[in-house]
Amino acid sequence: MATPAPPISPPPFPKPITASPRKDTHPLSLLPKCNSLRELKQIQAYSIKTHLQNDISVLTKLINCCTVHPTTSSMEHAHHLFDQIPNPDIVLFNFMARGYARTTSPFRAFTLFTQTPNLVPDNYTFPSLLKACASSKAIQQGKQLHCLVVKHGQNCNIYVYPALINMYTECNDMDSAAQIFSRILEPCVVIYNALIAGYVRSSQPNKALSLFQELQARNVNPTYVTMLSVLSSCALLGALDMGKWVHKYVNRNGFDQHVKVSTALIDMYAKCGSLNDAVSVFESMTFRDTQAWSAMIVAYAIHGHGYRAISTFEEMKMAHVEPDAITFLGLLYACNHTGLVDEGWGYFFSMRDKYKISTGIKHYGCMVDMLGRAGRLYDAYKFINELPIKPTPILWRTLLAACNSYGNVKLGKLVIEKIFGLDDSHSGDYVIFSNMCARAGRRKDVNYIRKLMKDKGVEKVPGCSSIEVNNVVHEFFSGDGTRVEHRELHKTLDELVEELKLVGYVPDTSLVFHADMEDREKEATLRYHSEKLAIAFGLLNTPSGMTIRIVKNLRICGDCHSAAKFISSVFKRQIILRDVQRFHHFKDGKCSCGDYW
DNA sequence: TTAGGGTTAG
C-alpha cells in the first residue's frame, strides 16, 4: 500500500527574524562609529552591563576610541586595556602607536614596539612609529626604524616613504630626506608634499618652490596640502608677485574651497605686506574656523593695526567661534605693537580665567615684550622672575631689546648675564649689548664684548634684505659693500645719502658695532646696510611711484629706519619693509609703526 | 588601522 501523500501544507510562515541576542546587544553594532570620549564611555558602560568587557572586539574598539584623539589620560586608559590582552595583534599595536604618535609622549610608541618583539609590523606600523619619532625629534630611534624598515622589505612601501622623509625633515636632517627622495623613481604627490613641507619647515622656501616646479613638470597633480606649503614659501620669501600667481593657480584648480588654503592665503598676503588682499580673502570666505580668524587677527597685529585686531576678535566672539592659544597670541601681539598695555593684561588674564586656555611660553614672551616696549622694564624683569616656569634665553633676550630701546645699560648688564648663563652662542645678544654700551659711550665695555665674542667663536649673522623685481628675488647682504656688481648701486646710494642729508637726515653712526672705526668708515658701513642696498636697487629698477617691498632677516636698524622715512618723502615712494618682527609702511616721511618698535 | 598641512613671542 502506497503511503498516502502527505497533505499539502501551506507554505510555512516565514521565520520571524530574531537576531541572536549576542548580536543584538553587542555594543559595536549599536555604536558603529566611535570617535569621542562620550561614545567611549557609552561603550564601556554597555560592555560592562552586558558582560562583554573582555570581548576582544570590544577592547579593540575601546582602544581605537582612546587613540583617535588621544590625551595623556586616554592613552593611560588605552595602555591599561592593552596590558589586559594576552596576545595583542598588530592592529591593536597600530592603534597604540598612532595614539602615542599623536600625544606629547610619542617616545612610548617606540618603547612599546621594542617590548613586543613577536609582532610582525604591517603597512600601518612604521608610518605611525616614524611619526612618533618625528614629533619628538628622536632621530636616533628614527634611524633605527629606518634600518628595520629596510630589514622588513618595506623601504619601497608607498606609505613608508613619506613617513621616512617626514621623520628626517622634522629632525632637521634635510640631506637624508633629500637622499631618500632622490632614489624614488616616480614619487607620488604625498612624497613630494613631505619633502616640500620639510623645505618650508627648514626655512628653505626657494628649494620648496623649485620642487613644486619639478612636480608640475613631471605632471604630478598637486593637492591642497601642496598648496599650503607653496603659499608658506611665498610668505617666507615675502614674494608678493609669486603669491598672487599662486592665488590664481589655487582658484583655477578649485583649492580655494578649502578653509585651510584660504587661511594660508591670508597669512601669505599679510606676510607679503598686502593687508588689503588678506582682508579681501578673509571677507570672501563663507566659513571661517578658529585658525582663519586667528590668521586675520595676526595679520592686523603684524601691520600695527592693534584696534582692528581687537575688533576682529569681537566679531569672532559674535560668530560663536571659540578662540585658542594662537588667537590670544595674536591679540597679545597686537596689544604689544600698539602700546595697549592694559588691554594686553586683560587678555592675558581672560584667556586663563575665562576661556580656560593655558598660557604658554610664547604668551609670556608677548607680555615681557609689551611691558618692555612700554618702558616698564623693571615690571618686565619682575614678571620673568615670577613665572611658574624656568625662563628661556628668548624671554631674557626680549627684555634685553627693551633695555636697548630705553638705553638702560644697568639692567641690560644684569639681563645679559642671565642670558649668558643659559646660552652664549647667540650673536644678536653681543651686538645689542655692544650697541647699548656704544651709545652710552662705554667704549671699554664694547671692546670687552667684541673680544668675548671673538674668544667664543660667535659669528655675527649678516643682515640680508631681499626685493622681488619682475618675479626674481634679489638678495643683498650687509657685507656686499665690496662686490663689483654693486658698483652702480653704491654710486646711487652715495648720491642718495648726500641728497637726504640736505633735507635733514643725519647718519646715526653710534649704531655701528666696530667701536674703533673712524667716523668716515662707520658711515660707509652704515651706508651699505642690506636694507639700504635693497631700497636703492628698488629705486633704480622699478618705475617711479611704484611701492618698494623689502624683506629683511633681522630687525631693521634705527639708521635705516630713519633713512627710509626720508626716502619715502623725497622720492614720493611708499616703502613696505618686513623685518624679522613686523611690517614698516613708510609713506610721506612717516612710518606706520609710529617709531614704536 | 596608514602618509602629507596652515596660523606661533624674541
From TrEMBL:
DYW domain sequence ranges: 504-597
Q: By its UniProt entry, which PROSITE patterns does this protein fall under?
A: PPR
Keyword Glycosyltransferase in record: no
Q: Which family does it belong to?
A: Belongs to the PPR family. PCMP-H subfamily.
Output this protein's name. Answer: DYW domain-containing protein
PPR repeat spans: 188-222, 289-323
For this protein, the record's Gene3D superfamilies field holds:
Tetratricopeptide repeat domain (1.25.40.10)
Compositionally biased spans, kind Pro residues: 1-15
A Gene Ontology biological process term: RNA modification
Region listing for Disordered, in residue ranges: 1-24
Read off the InterPro entries from this record: DYW_dom, E_motif, PPR_At4g14850-like_plant, PPR_rpt, TPR-like_helical_dom_sf
Question: Domain of life, per the record?
Answer: Eukaryota
